[in-house]
Design goal:
The protein is an alpha+beta fold. The chain has two helices and five strands; from the N terminus they run αβββαββ. A hairpin with a 6-residue loop joins strand 2 (about 45-55) and strand 3 (about 60-70). The radius of gyration is 15 Å and the shape is globular. It starts with a helix and ends with a strand.
Length: about 130
Amino acid sequence: MVTTQRSGARQDLGRLGEELAAEHLLDAGWEIVARNWRSPDPLIRGELDLVGMDPDDRALVFVEVKTRRSATAFGGPLAAVTRTKQLKLRQLGISFLRESGINAPSIRFDVIGIVVAPAPSEPAIEHIRGAC
């Protein structure tokens, strides 16, 4: 039973982080193209958290969002994007391009790390462009 509660709390934290990341991007003038996109290809399992268009360079950007309650525990949110995760994001990005038919002048993989500290602190958001 404890595992289910932890898993639920983790999912809630992840959803909060994705919402904060989407707001961050929308505030910067981005268009959100997809949220929580899953590949229909059974050989490519996984999810793209956010897919958006960067208004600065019109790049189609695949955004991985990592949210933590601490910047130091487990290496912080950005440390969770391992080489294996980067390769999986690339596979998912290719699958998305095939399925969506979107034609963009360029593509990019970004990571947004969010640390949600206890109130009244505001969440800290770090956006790394071209991270993968």
